[in-house]
Amino acid sequence: MQKKRHMKVIVVANVEQQQEIASKNTKPAAEVAFIKTLSEIEPGHYDALFYLTEDHSELDVQKLAGKPVFINAVVETLEQNKWPLHVCRINGWPGFLQNAIWEVATNDPIPASQVFEKLGWKAVFVGDKTGLISPRVISMIINEAFFAIEEEVSTTREIDLAMKLGTNYPFGPFEWIDKIGVQNIYLLLKNLSLKDKRYVVAPLLEKKYLEFIDSQKA
Prior knowledge:
Elements: E1 7-12, H1 15-22, E2 30-35, E3 48-51, E4 69-72, H2 78-81, E5 87-90, E6 101-105, H3 109-119, E7 122-126, H4 134-150, H5 156-167, H6 173-180, H7 182-193, H8 203-217
Parallel strand pairs: 1-2, 1-3, 3-4, 4-5, 6-7
Antiparallel strand pairs: 5-6
Helix pairs in contact: 4-6, 4-7
């Protein structure tokens, strides 16, 4: 009787992302191999690719045709990039990869669902919308928290504590922004606010973002 071949998944990720993936309960029949850049991939020697790097400049999805490719793309949509059917969007923000359920946006859910089933990971398929679902909600919560600080409603520590106790979230809004990165939150809100004024960036959050940009130039 022929032995079933293990499914091999390649993950392009930084150290923190690798640690979150490694903490997941992956089925023994699935092999997860971590690499830092696409140049390390051996053509044809994998069944699916998770590209978790936020910089997509080296990504040529046409060269990766034939196998499911899951891209960390919270803001960019499949439609905007005209990505082909084998490409799916996921949320690779820090803290989200260890979630029990991943959000996946795709125009071809069958191959994607097969990959997740073989990995033993759970996925929910969502619409190809800017921000997916969880990042959009978290970003709005963070934004409202910055408005609350401007209005001197409370302190950052108290707001973080209230959110964790009141909603059972693992982090408060100010802890979330430190973990996710102010640039990710700001760019998502800015993009969402183009069509929905509910997402207009709080002045204090924008100030924090500009300070971050200045620090990167130093």
